[in-house]
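User: Show me an example of a complex going from sequences to structure tokens.

Assistant: Sure. Here are the input components:
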Amino acid sequence: MPINPFTYIATSCFKECYNIQASYSQLLAPPLHSGSGQWTTESETSHLHIQFYLERSSTGLMHRNLMHISRIRLASLIAAAMAILGDSTQAVAEGITSMEEFQSMPLVYPKFMIDNLWILISAALVFVMHLGFATLETGLTRQKNTVNILFKNIFIVSVGIVTYALTGFNTMYPGDFNGFISILGPIGFGGDEVANLTTNYGPGTYTYWSDFIFQAMFAATAATIVSGAVAERVKLTGFMVYATILVAFLYPIAGSWKWGGGWLDTMGFYDFAGSSIVHAFGGFSALACVLVLGPRRGKYVNGQVRPILGHSMPLATIGVFLLWLGWFGFNGGSVLSADPGLVSLVFVTTSLAAAAGALASIFTSMAYLKKPDVSMALNGILAGLVGITAGADSVTWIGAILIGLIAGTIVVFAIVTIDRIEIDDPVGAISVHGICGMWGTIAVGIFSTNADHSVITQIIGTLSYAAFAFVASLILASLVKATIGFRVSAEEEDEGLDMSEHGQPAYADFQHINN
Amino acid sequence: MVKIEAFLRPAALEQVQKALADIGIAGLSVLEVRGYGRQRGHREVYRGAEYTVDFVPKIKIEVAVSDEVKQQAIDAIIKAAKTGQVGDGKVFVVPVNEAVRVRTGETGDSAL
């Protein structure tokens, strides 16, 4: 018999009820009056049917439930628990016919609320990642481009959510489709609440709206990754056009290949929370854009690399710590329920990989660069996080540490190498998201505890994402360059995009001398 | 009456201020500046690439003193700021024609 998801809740709920009843007996006091609580069980029939009437017009539903349950005699409680644990489980989970019926299910409804709430909390955590990206990018670039970077981040998250509602969500989850592309229209479920707001929807752990908002928060991330790599010289209008098309069409199309049940999903490719679908996609889109743009002025002089220092390591650190926080939602929410075992495992693997990534990059940069570089340590944390994202639910804690250590080592060499071949990526997005996203996806094939995951399939999958993102972005960025322009003029770049694009300094009252 | 302009290490400020106060010099201004002398900046590494810091952060203190305490003040500054390493800085002494205290209108040494 498969593990019954209701066993835990049924058992703990039963204990609660019993305890409450006992304490009431001791006090010799009636329970609080709160509506017309009443259970009826038809224990004679083979199909036990439970009805649980109560007022639910106000808050504190769980509390009220327990109050009511306390009135019930033990015998009927045992009968009720057996009914839910028995062969009626399936019927309870899928055969709901009305919202009233759903809300009156004493064990199913609270579990659904907890699962659904966790998805919503996760969506909020993923939202915080956009603040993390904004501060990280700001910190690793010059202060004269700060307003421009903030502006791009504000635009991306906003346009990302709106376009995801208009087309992205349905394009990414098209249902039955050819496996490659199916561009569809806006969200909406035609008012069928029972189908979309109960356990009847999806895996039965969240509502349609929760599904949408969680995925919408993800969607903008792919374009945000590009924002960092093109910072300090991209033309605002050109970037806005590029980012809109990327987030509205390219990302959802690529996402549908796996998460929408497309051809990579059929092949057995595994990407738990998006090492490839989000990060490698964003990283290789960034690479294409940087190649179209060229390096920042003054970065390469006579074949020599001239580093352009970020202006605020505190902001960069705040950004990375916020991203780490957000990743609990990014990975933890990707469990798609509040499953205690899986969510806690994912928290552990996510944090261990982040920490191992930091340690690896710290010691690699101390040994290889002879310097404990804080920006490298921060990139190491992100490398570990990106690396674990594909397999956070299917590797052991030791596997997570190894994935993080390797990602944190790779990222230092990748950043230095990419820098030396004159690909100017101010924040290291190509290395962190592109290279480590690929590594994390392949690592699933190596470290997964699930025998169905294979290295070959993982390589095919991640290369597909990298290639699609790179080619599509190369075409898109080139088209933007040829039409409205993708890069600011040399004078505007020297002056700083804050003044030339926005006419607004980031730190109006701060004294500074430009070196 | 002279003005002493000293370009020093930022870390020297506290000792220099104390040394000047100890010999009874009442006023002192300090500015954050960047520059280089014979040391010509230094090399650093950022994300794996070397770069030169041409303009090193320094402080510039400005203090006006009477001719009588001029040498004493210079000696105090040097004693307090000297580490013996490259980059200790320089002291310039420039003549001052006149000084006026804004509040009282006093002039000359009594304005200091």
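The lines above are the inputs; the final block is the predicted structure for all two components together. The helical segments of chain B are 13-22, 70-81.
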